[in-house]
Design brief:
With 196 residues, the protein is mostly helical. It is elongated. The model has no long low-confidence stretch (mean pLDDT 85).
Length: 196
């Protein structure tokens, strides 16, 4: 049997132990480095996605705001002495501008409250366009007021401000929308229960 000196044996064990600890440390360090890099990459992707969403939102909001300003200019063309054909054309143009503004606002990402508020405010504006086109004898006060409120909503969102409070007409439109949503849900539940 070969006799190994104690010092040699201790040195060999220390060397192997140190190599094992060094290898373990290198593996742990590599794993921590890789984990940190994955986290940084994820944060960069999230920031890039947020930047893309913000740009899309800004573009859609700009388009919607442009349509709202066009609607406001259109409302100012109202005359009390319109013929029936002119009234119809004035109403249809205003209605179309409101629709395009709502379509663009629907494309604003991560803005659920704004989209619902704009939907309700534009519904009020459409109703007031109808009232002003067919029943107003003077100025189109209702549609001008509702359009100004809708512009204020979208402008506040774009500035990052709090949204202005609901007008009474917007509240009515919101309640009507909620009632339609509940009625549709009840009808769907009834339809589902009757087919089961």
């Amino acid at each position: 049997m070969i006799a190994v000196q104690t010092e040699t044996l201790v040195g060999l064990i220390s060397g192997l132990g140190g190599a094992a600890i060094g290898a373990g440390g290198a593996l742990l360090g590599g794993w921590l480095q890789q984990r940190h890099q994955v986290k940084l990459d994820r944060e960069q992707r999230e920031q890039a996605r947020a930047g893309v969403l913000e740009e899309r939102g800004r573009t859609a909001a700009d388009k919607a705001l442009g349509e709202l300003y066009a609607l406001r200019r259109h409302i100012s063309t109202w005359k009390g002495a319109f013929s029936t054909e002119e009234q119809n054309e004035w109403f249809q143009t205003g209605y179309s501008l409101a629709d395009v503004a709502e379509l663009n606002a629907a494309l604003i990402p991560e803005a659920d409250e704004l989209r619902e508020r704009l939907q309700d405010a534009l519904e009020s504006a459409r109703d007031s366009l109808h009232a002003d086109a067919w029943y107003s004898e003077h100025e189109p006060y209702l549609s001008a007021s509702d359009t100004e409120h809708t512009i204020a909503l979208l402008s506040a969102y774009m500035r990052g401000d709090y949204l202005p409070p609901m007008t009474a007409r917007e509240e009515r439109a919101s309640l009507a929308r909620e009632m339609r949503r509940e009625a549709a849900a009840e009808e769907e539940a009834h339809r589902y229960s009757s087919t089961s």
